[in-house]
TrEMBL record:
Record EC number: 7.2.1.3
Record text on subunit structure and interactions: Homodimer.
Broad class of where this protein is predominantly found: membrane
Keywords, ordered alphabetically: Cell membrane, Electron transport, Heme, Iron, Membrane, Metal-binding, Oxidoreductase, Translocase, Transmembrane, Transmembrane helix, Transport
Protein name as annotated: Plasma membrane ascorbate-dependent reductase CYBRD1
Record localization: Apical cell membrane
Length: 228
């Protein structure tokens, strides 16, 4: 969940993906989140079956409470992401209103997953290391503690990439996606067919094309660009 979810978060933030179609990136983003959700469900089923087979109580620790909460909210996040941002039925105004919530909740869930993993490995060490005990700092404890530090560093790096404005997908690339397939930049195709027209008509056409371009850019920045 940590690795696949982090890949889904930063898929828009990788510069070599900025030239790809926005729709393609949306499908990749949704696919990675779906894979992470399936793996999370499989792992939770395995945990409950293991506890039941060993007569271990379920859902008694803070690790289990926060972990289950993260999976539940992640499933809601995935459902709303499909319904609002992937399917073409939601209006632009609704996407623009939900985009900040979508981004914030995605980053919050990722941070919660990191915290859950840290609590889980600590809990496992306390229960498993008996002789020598965890407090004696055996090699296993040192190794897992280093793993926990790497998780914190990795999570901080992902959150930093997702929150920096200069890592965002450039809006100019998004405008290209709005252009029809095989089309030319706004204004050039129509203007080329008006070589016999007056300068005033050409000037009006340029103003209209520029206004349309700005409107598309505004809509895209408001409702289409996403981190999650």
């Amino acid at each position: 969940l940590v690795s696949v979810l982090s890949s889904a978060i930063i898929v828009y933030r990788l510069p070599w993906t900025w030239k790809c179609s926005k729709l393609l990136m949306k499908f990749i983003h949704a696919g990675l989140n779906t894979i992470a959700m399936i793996l999370a469900i499989v792992s939770m089923v395995a945990v409950f079956e293991y506890h039941n087979a060993r007569n271990i109580p379920n859902m008694y620790s803070l690790h289990s409470w926060i972990g289950l909460t993260a999976v539940i909210f992640y499933s809601l996040q995935l459902f709303l992401g499909f319904a609002v941002f992937l399917l073409p039925f939601a209006p632009v105004t609704l996407r623009a209103a939900l985009m900040p919530i979508h981004v914030y909740s995605g980053l919050t869930i990722f941070a919660t997953v990191i915290a859950t993993a840290l609590m889980g490995i600590t809990e496992k060490l306390i229960f498993s290391l008996k002789n020598p005990a965890y407090s004696a700092s055996p090699p296993e404890a040192t190794f897992v503690n280093c793993l926990g530090l790497l998780l914190v560093i990795y999570g901080a790096l992902i959150l930093w990439m997702a929150s920096r404005p200069h890592w965002k997908r450039p809006p100019e690339e998004n405008v290209k996606v709005l252009r029809p397939i095989g089309g030319t930049p706004e204004g050039t195709e129509v203007e080329s067919t008006m070589t016999d027209g007056s300068n005033a008509d050409k000037s009006d056409l340029r103003v209209t094309s520029e206004a349309a371009r700005k409107q598309n850019l505004k809509f895209d920045e408001a409702g289409q660009r996403s981190t999650m």
